[in-house]
Structures are given as structure tokens and as C-alpha cells.
Amino acid sequence: MPREHRVPRPSRECDGVPFGSAEEAWFWSVQAHDAKAEGARVVAGRGLVARPCEPDDVLRTVDRLYRQRRLVRDHLHVLVHYGRRLMAPDPARRLEQRASTLWREAFACLSPVLRDKGIVQDAGVPR
What's the pTM value of the predicted model, to 2 decimals? Predict the structure, then answer.
């Protein structure tokens, strides 16, 4: 009889504090990635706030959405550019209107996935 292989779902209570939004998780991941690229050692559990994931978990999720063709190259460019600036594109600025649309589309795909993984807080659950 074949055994069912299930990946254990992380416990939200003991594995760290989920992010308030997917944008917050994205900015954190980009900062950690850039710090690591500059030579910093990123060690799990050493931050001021324990998180339910590693920065690479968020980056791998974006990569997976890209490989599934739910995100396109333009989404990735906007995510990286504004992620490094630590701010979302401003839809009120004429030169950022397209980027703002792409940003919203990307997070419309990313948010539910991160929420399901316990990385981002459930919408109805207060912090």
C-alpha cells in the first residue's frame, strides 16, 4: 500500500511572526538577498523578529510563479527595481503608472501563495 507523502505545514505559532503583507515579505527578502550578495552571513533566527521562512523561500515562490507563467519578465523587473528602493511604484506619478499596474498584478498572484504557506498573515487575523 503506497504511503502518502505530505510536506508538513509550518506551525504559525512557533515558527515565527508572519509578515503583515506580501510586500513586507518581498522587501525583507530583497534586503536579505542584497546583504548576502555583499558578503553578509544570513543566519536563520538571528533577526530582531523571528520569521516563518527564509528570504530564499519568498524568492523561490516568485521564481515558481514565473516558471508557471503567472508572472512575466516585466513583473520581475518591477519587483526587483522597486524592491531595492524599498517602496512600491506610485500610481500618481505618470512615469510609474505602468510599473504600479505590474506591481499590483504581481502581488495579486504572490499574496495568496505566501498566505497559504503561513509566510503572510491571514487577512482576517489581527496581529
Answer: 0.81
